[in-house]
Design a protein that fits this description.
It is built from three helices and two strands; from the N terminus they run E-E-H-H-H. It is mostly helical. A two-stranded antiparallel ribbon has the order 1-2. The longest helix is centred in the middle third of the chain and has 91 residues. The C terminus is likely disordered.
Length: about 170
């Protein structure tokens, strides 16, 4: 089937059903011409002068609105992406914080246990030292210098009688 090219008004044999131009060049020239006329403001016709100008302004405003809308949609997408990543980071930090609190509680319980054990040990040693001193005094045995040195460092003076101690 022979067609007439819309652009150059020449005859050609189309290679497919939808082909309208004889060559790519003719099609490109037609598209360029359409683009140039679309950018040019329409000249008002005497009868519809106001309507044509308003339509062109409306198209320009719609394009500007679409551009602004795309810009803000992109900003919203970026901010939502940041928000999601910050949310994931917060979840990770909360989990880490929870683990650290549990570890801290375990360590505090261990410190409390060690302090109780140390206090019990000190009380037991003080009781044994007092018993040793009283036994040595009762039997009239002198304590060795190392034991006296330890007791003196701890603030005990076995050679002196404590105030309020019972005399025999």
């Amino acid at each position: 089937m022979i067609k007439i090219c819309e652009e150059c008004a020449g005859c050609f044999e189309p290679s497919r059903k939808s082909q309208r131009f004889c060559s790519i060049r003719c099609g490109n020239r037609k598209r360029d011409r359409i683009r140039r006329t679309a950018r040019r403001p329409a000249l008002p016709v005497a009868a519809d002068a106001g309507a044509v100008v308003v339509k062109d302004e409306l198209k320009a405003l719609r394009r500007q609105l679409a551009t602004t809308k795309r810009i803000y949609q992109r900003r919203v997408e970026i901010l939502q992406s940041k928000l999601r990543s910050q949310s994931c980071e917060i979840d990770r930090l909360e989990a880490e914080n929870s683990e650290q609190r549990q570890s801290n509680n375990v360590l505090q319980l261990e410190v409390a246990r060690l302090k109780r054990a140390q206090r019990t040990n000190v009380q037991d040693l003080a009781h044994l030292a007092a018993w040793l001193v009283s036994l040595a005094n009762a039997k009239g045995v002198a304590l060795d210098p190392a034991t006296l040195d330890i007791l003196n460092r701890r603030g005990w003076h076995p050679s002196k009688r404590q105030a309020g101690a019972a005399r025999t």
